[in-house]
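Is this the right way to post structure tokens for a design question? Let me know if I should format differently. Anyway, here goes:
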């Protein structure tokens, strides 16, 4: 029986030293019947997105050396991780994956979203192949699993929707097949269509969701997300100097923070865990001896700590009916219907009698398409390169230092949350 699911993100496996650290954590818990969900190494996903863009720009007419940075990065990790006698053996395991990736990158006549899912997910396949080999060599018996044979989705490429029934049937087959004492290791982020012919992805940073999927289907006791910070903080320490650790929060509060853009937890992670009462821990892989943040259903009597969340690269789009009619339900349906079709998620919404404003993650192609669909019936204005600043459990004056000197385009508040769109 698999009791615990551990998720390791890119930062936790970014180099040979990081992989050794993962091994030391797993060694301490290998008798707990764990399943590991592992992301691509370091910034590999970003690199593969850039490589994909280059191949499409040149209609696939690039040589294998276009992948050289990605290949060399992983080979350097292998060389620094394995004994000399085993280096060639491990390279022989990952080389076919690079060749498959190269062949798929050249198929540039494909729809972009589909092409993305057939290529970018190789970062996870390569990283887990290397890590499984290292764990086995290090005396930690490990079984490598291809997530594409377990996580079944629809064809909504780049943000696929899970087929829970088929996924549950497949994952639960692991129970009778699993041998106690053997660590299972699989990939985050990726899945496939039910016929296993087309790879899919669950959305950027979707590895947390993968961990929750496996935990839900296996009725695990807990999920641990291993991060480079000491649990869930009330702000990004790279932006704010005086951060505070949040020791314990409810599922509902975690969903609120994830919705507003807190990057520690993927927004889809909580629901599968809450449905089964599976606790979630956010723990430091740098200081694993430190107490984690605990997320569960327990009612917590403590002072609410204000949380500060910043989302960069935002677009603020405002639409008004050209006939000066009210921004009523009919017009709202038109605008949100277009957003839904283009997979545009609103991070903030504000309405008035004549205007609807939506703040969302910038995407030039989607902005052009959205404006094209709306401009006949609406006057459309938009600004890009903005920030969305959210304060959860807002307290008067706490925003003053951050917004000082910035242009406030929109300010909106509710009982517990204040949001600013900043230029």
């Amino acid at each position: 029986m698999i009791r615990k699911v551990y998720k390791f993100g890119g930062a936790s496996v970014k180099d040979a030293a990081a992989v050794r650290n993962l091994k030391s954590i797993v060694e301490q818990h290998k008798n707990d019947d764990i399943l590991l969900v592992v992301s691509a190494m370091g910034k590999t996903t970003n690199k593969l997105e850039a490589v994909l863009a280059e191949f499409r720009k040149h209609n696939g007419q690039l040589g294998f050396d276009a992948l050289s940075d990605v290949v060399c990065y992983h080979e350097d990790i292998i060389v620094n991780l394995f004994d000399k006698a085993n280096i060639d053996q491990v390279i022989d395991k990952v080389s076919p994956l690079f060749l498959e990736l190269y062949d798929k990158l050249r198929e540039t006549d494909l729809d972009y979203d589909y092409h993305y899912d057939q290529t970018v997910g190789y970062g996870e396949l390569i990283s887990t192949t290397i890590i499984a080999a290292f764990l086995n060599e290090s005396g930690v018996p490990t079984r490598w699993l291809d997530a594409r044979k377990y996580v079944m989705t629809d064809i909504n490429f780049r943000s696929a929707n899970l087929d829970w029934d088929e996924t549950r049937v497949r994952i639960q087959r692991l129970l009778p097949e699993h041998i106690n004492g053997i660590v299972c290791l699989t990939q985050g982020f990726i899945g496939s269509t039910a016929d296993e012919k087309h790879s899919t992805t669950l959305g950027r940073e979707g590895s947390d969701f993968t961990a929750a999927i496996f935990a839900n289907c296996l009725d695990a006791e807990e999920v641990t997300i291993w991060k480079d910070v000491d649990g869930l903080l009330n702000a990004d320490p790279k932006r704010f100097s005086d951060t505070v650790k949040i020791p314990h929060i409810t599922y509902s509060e975690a969903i609120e923070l994830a919705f507003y853009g807190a990057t520690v937890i993927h927004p889809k992670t909580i629901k599968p865990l809450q449905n089964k009462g599976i606790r979630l821990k956010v723990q430091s892989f740098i200081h694993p001896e430190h107490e984690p943040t605990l997320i569960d259903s327990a009612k917590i009597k403590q002072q609410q700590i204000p949380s500060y969340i910043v989302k960069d690269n935002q677009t603020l789009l405002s639409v008004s009916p050209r006939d000066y009619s009210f921004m009523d339900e009919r017009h709202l349906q038109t605008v949100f219907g277009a957003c839904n079709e283009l997979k545009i998620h609103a991070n903030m919404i504000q309405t008035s009698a004549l205007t609807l404003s939506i703040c969302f993650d910038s995407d030039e192609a989607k902005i052009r398409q959205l404006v094209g669909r709306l401009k006949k019936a609406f006057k459309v204005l938009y600004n890009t390169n903005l920030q969305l600043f959210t304060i959860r459990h807002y307290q008067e004056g706490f925003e003053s230092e951050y917004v000082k000197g910035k242009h406030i385009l929109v300010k909106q508040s509710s009982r517990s949350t204040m949001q600013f769109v900043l230029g």
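Format looks fine. Someone answered above. Worth noting: Residues 307-422 form a domain with the VC0802-like fold (CATH 3.30.2130.10). The first helix runs from residue 16 to 29.
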